[in-house]
User: Fold these one by one.
Assistant:
Number 1:
Amino acid sequence: MEQKWWHNKTAYQVYPKSFYDSNGDGTGDIRGIIEKLDYLKELGIEILWLSPVYLSPCADQGYDIADYYQIDPQFGTMEDMDTLLLEAEKRQIHVLMDLVVNHCSDEHEWFKKACEDPEGEYGRFFYMEKAEDGKMPCNWRSYFGGPVWERVPGTDYYYLHLFHKKQPDLNWENPKLRESIYRMVNWWLEKGLAGFRIDAIINIKKPLPFKDYPADREDGLCDMGQVLADAEGIGTFLGELRDRTFKPHDAFTVGEVFNEKEEELPEFIGENGYFSSMFDFRETVEGKSPSGWYDCKKPTPEDYKRCCFESQRRSEGVGYLANVIENHDEPRGVSHYLPKYAQNERGKKLLAILYFMLKGIPFIYQGQELGMENTVFHSIDEVDDIGSKDEYRRCLEVGYSESEALKIISHYSRDNARTPFQWTDGENAGFTKGRPWITVNPDYIEINAKEQMDRRDSVYSLYRELIALRKNPLYEETIVYGRTEPVLTEETDIMAYFRRGEAQEILVLGNFDSRERTVVLEETGDREDQMEVLINNCPALRTEMGRFTLEPCQAVVIAYRKHG
């Protein structure tokens, strides 16, 4: 595999609104990110992904963009952005931004002009369909609930929005629209961006002409997953986007792709793939249900193990996945994937080790390195996220009580990941001197960066160790390029795999169980003199002739020299 500049890097996602507030208005900002670059540098981060800071009315927290060439005043100015790029470069940190081009905002100039003349030049930048007898063009359901069609005010036209009604979908079938997007992408890359995280990109290709699908709920609408499975030809758009923008700049790109077909993986992340990488969402979607959050099943450790190994198998020899535990759209990973008895520092380290050592690009979401947990909601009025509010309504519709509905959405809400970063145990967790835009998680007294940075056995310190190990010349070839080979797969609640490189093998071994477990790996029995424990989340490791006795939630990383 051709070696790329980004292969050995660790990436970090910042949700700017909740990272650090530099001016006391309660909202995180670009100046706040600049002030904390040394924190990221010390952690070992070399790629920084910023969730949207573009001009936006924030119907969906900045993923509804009103102007791709402007910074929203709540985050600062374009001068601040230029300073961030310069200061990050000084610290050898590459900056990515979100590329949100499936849709824009209904306050974008393009959409305003489209509404004035739905059949004109800008009307064709969107999907604008004339109502037939007042009937919508098709029965698709928006990701945020309700139909995907909204009437253009004062007309008999509807416009398409797969997400919020203030997020009209852009018509990628129109070459003029695509040219406008390519100009914008190149403008940012020429400014100094290293690349993009590409949002909701699988949605840009719709099955046309519009038609109804079998309804899957009593609302008579159909889930978008079923619809997009019918779409053909997205590669034409993505290949053109790559060739016109990313490729000439050697940009690093990571796609948010949920619905690709397995045989299409080489086209997405292969040698000449549309993207450098794409997120591994196999664990993320495990247990999810099109019926709603009330019908979701929390993944078990066995589910998690199976999903990880399936993803490693399908990507081996093809390309690099981006490995994640959580992001701004998901609950906190330690609250979602770990059993209740494992939701402590040892369990958090177990999860960190097992995901981080997989082949691929590790992404850390802000606060993950501290083991930040889901927050507590006492009322639906405390919830900000529009998707969570829709799911709450859905729970009530199918018969759950208000308290039951709140408990369900409390687990899955995107707000869990959007509470302010917990810098200290001081007022507002050290995030702001003002009133935070969203309530701080009350556990900041116990879980915060200041306390963990001063403690050698903290979750933060473990993440620093993992990042440093990935960059260590003695192990880099194996960790970055070695194959992943699962072992002990029949051992319930044990997740174990080798990373096999040219000169060495690294064994990763973890026990999700609440009990001590002894497992046998015969191939290591005569190799204890070649064994080096690199990372251990417990004080010791008991091993003898290939028998490993693991404490509850223990995880270890062990290097072996290869035979001969």
Number 2:
Amino acid sequence: MGVVGGRPPVRPLTILCVSKLTDVPKRILIGRALRSDRLGETLLPKRIALPVFASDPLSSVAYAPGEVLLVLSIAGVSAYHFSPWIAVAVVVLMFTVVASYRQNVHAYPSGGGDYEVATTNLGPKAGLTVASALLVDYVLTVAVSISSGIENLGSAIPFVVEHKVLCAVAVILLLTVMNLRGVKESGKLFAIPTYVFVTGVFLMIAWGAFRGLVLDDTMRAPTADYEIKPEHQGLAGFALVFLLLRAFSSGCAALTGVEAISNGVPAFRKPKSRNAASTLTLMGALAVTMFCGIIALAMVTKVRMAEYPGKDLFHDGVPVGADYVQDPVISQVAEAVFGHGSLLFMILAAATALVLFLAANTAYNGFPLLGSILAQDRYLPRQLHTRGDRLAFSNGIVLLAGAAALLVVIYGADSTRLIQLYIVGVFVSFTLSQIGMVRHWNRHLASEKDPNKRRHMIRSRAINTFGAFFTGLVLVVVLVTKFTHGAWVALLGMCIFYVTMTAIRRHYDRVAEEIAAPETPDDDSMRPSRVHSIVLVSKIHRPTLRALAYAKLMRSNTLEALSINVDPAETKALKEEWERRGITVPLKVLDSPYREITRPIIEYVKNLRRESPRDVVSVVIPEYVVGHWYEHLLHNQSALRLKGRLLFTPGVMVTSVPYQLDSSEAAKKRARRRSEWNAPGAVRRGPVEKPRRTKEPSSKKG
């Protein structure tokens, strides 16, 4: 019968060898595994939670003002005087969203955020729409933040700009490793550059205001003497309104990431809701102040930005050319205020690049947590609900990194192109979440009798109602102004996520229905009438005798040995030795004229099932275990193929009976050493005593 009985279990030992090779570098990069009961130690104080969850909206002030000026440049420099009014509109929207989300974190502190609000109050479809929007937005947050950070860093290091895609992917990998080490540990690393950036921006605003108002200095950006060739001169009426709306929608990028705090309430220390609400308020105040300050300084220093700088920016009447690298607004303002090459300028440039990289950390916390909740609700694979060695949702972190890296490669790490896909998902979730909160308060007001609580609820409902109206209006503006510029890609991504998650849920529901336990477990229809055991035999050796002994202990209704005749001489020798040893188990031999092993066994088992549909067939396969990878290559894979085929045969149970050869001791030692490194799963298994080594007497048979 070939060597079905002698095939080593390749898959487990192969995994063991690969795990051993990757275990040491994994521990160096990620750290030692943490016990599940240490989850409370990973909770964040407010000073760490701010850079972890608010780095995205705080860092967006580095590129949001530039996006406003880029859009306005279509009408020329004359349209720049609208930028303060656009900033005011963005500020009003920011305060509205922050006030609305303060209601969310108090009402729904479990961490579901917008998804939980929409699902509870508007239904599963609305919740799934919000989840799809947020997942797309989190991926775009990583891609946009890192691409923008690369561009900012490129203003000081030309090599980075020349290799944008490679550098962006490398930063994504670095952030992935840092987040795999755990939320709290990565948060401590991210806190310093975030606070340096915030301090630097406030210092720049204060020093710029002092120079301009007190010292009456003239501060000029590097592009102050440049001219902009407008694509459309003298816009008026509807065209001007449309341009302003588009500029406003680009400035709304400053609001991205606001929802992350409501999704991350469980990561805060107690009292969770209060700490989350305080962090949300502080984040809003900081972001608004920095955004308005940079816009004001950009106007004072006469920053010039163009969507296509190579042909639309002119210096002394000559286009700057395709080789011109357009620095971000914040870099130009910092150069005008602090002076090019000054220490403060270099510190702010470095901090800006770092905080833009670290802004992606908002998504690295939000995406895995939301993915875990969706996996728990059976909308995503269950693996996303499992915590890794460092108690982070590792699978979600890796999935996010892969999707963001793909986007960066496709769009060439160009933040201007990527940002057109941005904020659509944010405002979809904003709007549906606020509508859900309005229904939440309506439901509670219908049953609440306490006057004080009713006044609080009515005030909260008014805030959420205004938030729903305002964010819904902005959503319409964003869709209208950005659809042809790339927003359709984000909408397509949302549809793909929605359809995929719906299909996953249907699969899990179908499986749950199929395997659901009956109301009467003792129902005769669930109990097989008989068990027919088959032991596969190639030749008589210790693994075969052990498998036969094990099969006898199963006390099946019928038991037989089965061999495939591919070599008449070997089959004849097998029958003779079988009779000589007086083995009581009957031996059945199947002819195989085409020297196949798997198919005759499958057909035989299927015939048994057809003859007695209520019987269970138990197939016992003797296997011996080797310890070195090269030994696997010396044996065929017939048992593996056979198991794969039998797996899809109803009413068939497959049992492997291992026999450990001397070389398997090497694998056993590797496994023992590996367990000392707190291998994955050790947290769940708990401490395990080392087994005593026993050696089987050489005279023992089977």
Number 3:
Amino acid sequence: MTDITTDGTYQVLARKYRPQSFEDLIGHEAMVRTLRNAFSTGRIAHAWVLTGVRGVGKTTTARILARALNYVGPDGQDDGPSIDMPVEGTHCRAIAESRHPDVLEMDAASRTGVGDIRELIEGVRYAPVEARYKVYIIDEVHMLSTQAFNALLKTLEEPPPHVKFIFATTEIRKLPVTVLSRCQRFDLRRIELDVLTAHLDKIAGLEGGAVALEGLQMIARAAEGSVRDALSILDQALLQHQGGDAVGPDAIRDMLGLADRSQVWQLLKAALAGDGKTVLSLFRGQYDAGADPAIILKDLLEVVHLATRVKAAGPEAAAQGAAGEEDAARAIEIADGLQLNGLTRAWSLLMKGLSDVQIAPDPASAAEIALIRIVYAVDLPTPDEALRALKSRGGPQAMAGSGAQAGAGAGIGAEAGAGTPGPHAHAGPRGVQTTAIGAAQNAPAMAPQTSPHPRAQAANLPQPQSFEEVVRLAEQHRDLKLKVELESFVHLISFECGKIRLRLAGDAPDTLAGRLTQCLLDWTGRRWTISVEQGEKGAETLRDVRNAEVMGHSLVKEALRVFPGAEIMAIREVKTDGEDNENVLFLDPEDEDKE
């Protein structure tokens, strides 16, 4: 690896070992292969966009590409653009040090306006001064304003033959599609863990230092695929090497504030075993040693993810994503003793705990609560286990008629809510839909209560004996929306105190049965069973019955005879103080003075 930018002063590793040719790049073989083919065939694009996370080599690749476009041998031999640059060429040093007059670098984060782009466009028409091409490198191009992008589009689509554009961005989605369609795009991916570890080991050797393999793996994981971040951490780690033994994992862990990897596995095993005392002890030991609570949970997420992969895809999946053979063996061990449901549940609880830790005033306490949730969630049945247990306990009685799902759903609600009332609507096969409130855990599902609830007796709450009384109860409690819906959409099949069987009109709200059940519980102090059935016709709605009565009134018939073609727009009840309203009928709701 050639260092062509040193000036005798100390350079950090991220600068000293910045790649100077395509051979020095690691982890981007697909991009290098594509560019090599393009250069060898002469099909060189006029614009490229490089995207990826921080530190993966976007700007470095842009400079190497600018060197390749303008490569001229040290002896002045010009064979045209070339990917292969075995020795430093005429323009290489100036381009690498960002001082070449024909390779112009622009930081779009600080020069976002249309005026800056117009200045760039003005210079496009002039030929290069020294090199073969005039190359414009725009870093963080997504920061340009909309007006700046619009000003650039025409030049970007049809630039002069001596101009090349190279864009770099971490936010590819923020680039207009009109810009992307004019560029060749290369996605620079995160460097894989083993590749980055080997690269760090090589550089540590070149620097005369030594870091244990486990320590290098810690650095690579902490860098999250960013070469620049990894080299910055390695630079710091090598300062701890004072000759003799290599820098060990303990020193790296203390430097980064990481949790002990072996302790993380023990912590996970104790949590999944339901051992709360050991969990809190291990966590507190890691925290007291300097590990950040969020880092501990992130490490737990990583090992849970690894164990879940092994459980889902077999032991061979341990090699993908494992930091080493030790992690792979532990993942296989944990996966063998657990169900997939338990691992995915642990993942969900850890994700929730991590978000809590990041906003909590005391992160350590939030992390402990997250771990305690996992400890006590171990014994909870999964939904399918709860359903099987319900079926085996209730048998056929747990199913209301043909609505198997209805009965099962009510039982689950009773178990999970520990008898706490709440609306649950459960739809079974076509024909039955049952809404139950807090069915008793040991009682047959859907069995209605025939005796008044103690709370209803104590509070002297009303117990409606007919559906009309239920409607009046809704009116008394000023729930006019429910009152209108009961009158308009309910075809009553049967009624007894505590149990209503009905059919709903096709345009009835889906929540009507559930709301009625909850309201009856609140108003009467007892739990009602509302059975919504489609197999029976039921009685006419109260609105239809009332309309039929009105239409049969002698005054209405006479009015329709006198005014042929007239329509009744609304019917409403009229109440006056002490007057006899037997022959008074208001047909127009907007005029209360008509008789």
Number 4:
Amino acid sequence: MASKGRRELPDESFYVDGNMEMISKTGSFVGHHICVPLEGVAVHINAFNFPVWGMLEKIAVNLLAGVPAIVKPATSTSYLTELVVKEIIESKILPEGSLQLICGSVGDLFKHLTCQDVVTFTGSAKTGRMLKSSPEIINNSIRFNMEADSLNCSILGPDATPDTEEFKLFIKEVTREMTSKAGQKCTAIRRTIVPENMTEAVIKAVSERLKGNVIGDPAVEGVRMGPLASKDQVKDVKANVRQLLNACEMVYGDLDKVEVVGADSEKGSFISSMLLYCKDPMKPSEPHSIEAFGPVNTVMPYRSTEEAIELAKMGKGSLVGSIVTGDNNFAKEVVLGSASMHGRMVIINQECAAESTGHGSPLAHLVHGGPGRAGGGEEMGGIRGVHHYMQRTALQGSPTTLTKILNTYLPGAAMKEDVIHPFRKYFEEIQVGDTLITHKRTVGEADIVNFAGISGDFFYAHMDETSLEGSIFEKRVAHGYFVISAAAGLFVDPKKGPVLANYGLDNLRFIQPVYIGDTIQVKLTCQRKTKKDKREGQLDQGVVEWYVQVVNQKQEIVALETVLTLVACKEQQA
């Protein structure tokens, strides 16, 4: 997240969101959006199964937003969180006070919260609903983000028969999600949805892999699955399995017996992996409403794509659904049919399997959360997650005023011309709004012919006037890329100076044609500046974004672009 912040966020204490909105006829009154940090604290109440990762993925975004955090881990595993927080504080990588830890009960914490604070919760839907309905949360309109355990599913495509690579991938994914962290993951697969004619093959294959899953002390060589987090968790899982058995049958595992290696099955919180089978999953509610939060999974057959989609949605909202198939048409139909009930969907086939992060791995780049039972929240998602800890405010005013506030040049704002060419200025000397209005250049037939010869672009509209009938052009038109190249020739200062290199261009648009005999001119304006991190062996530098308008002899805009240059800093010249 720090890396994304360096690349994608500005050198400001605020974030300019989206583009300027034209809300007046002449453009003298415009609109824009700005995001500023909330002036409160992010309170993260985390579940027992993610004492470290759950904390880090949340504080990463609130710290980028400029908001401090209070972390409240689950009591049963809080000692791990405490150890990590101590290491973080001792390392001094964060500003003092930006990370605080509360272990044990929340106490009266909520009574001290205001509308400037944010509460996030990860855990059971029941506890989440209780916290979300707290009077302080409701009365102060406090932002509350919930990520709850859900009945996630994985769907096997009808093309993925037992002789295919996709079938093997599916079996591997299902068993891994059952046994990883002893199935105590909010993203674990709870419902395995398979074609009816492959039910037996799937049950047999999963059972075979589970037989090789040695349970016991994780420190012992060969052990693949450890205990649950506590004895209470064992009781809870068993109680939920008994309810599931009202609608399902046990096809692998034992509710009361478990063989363990290097440990005492009675003293430890061990439990057997259990695979259930629901013959007619469209009827009973238990498999779609009861979650055994451990190494438990239910196989459900489907008879058609429509039925598979319906089963996927019967979980009433999940964090993740996966599809294992080599048939892209099936994948498309299932995604579009069931995405409304899933926060994330992963499609796995032999093309991507080697690098796939799998069903149960949320990623910082992508949103994590889901609708309905999954809590209705959303976290992470790259820079999207940062915005959850900021206030988005609409601004209205003149382009010049908003340019000053946002420190970003807006079209129509006042320009500042200088006798010094902007490319002769160092990074610190350039100001937003600094403008160069160039001399002019008339486009001739030779320009078009020569550019066609150099580029190899002999498109009819440039070269053949007899073919223009019925086209959008009145006569032979200059290449758009010639216009941009000629524009660069007008605004570039050729001498060696602070500009180190062209860094690229963005938002290129060709607004209207440039014909033979038209005269073009450029208005180059500093739109935004971003300081780059200094790397060993490199000059201290920054990126300057230039808003470029190419106009014709009537002062009509013919092309727009944003040109980026690397510009040296002056500090190192002393």
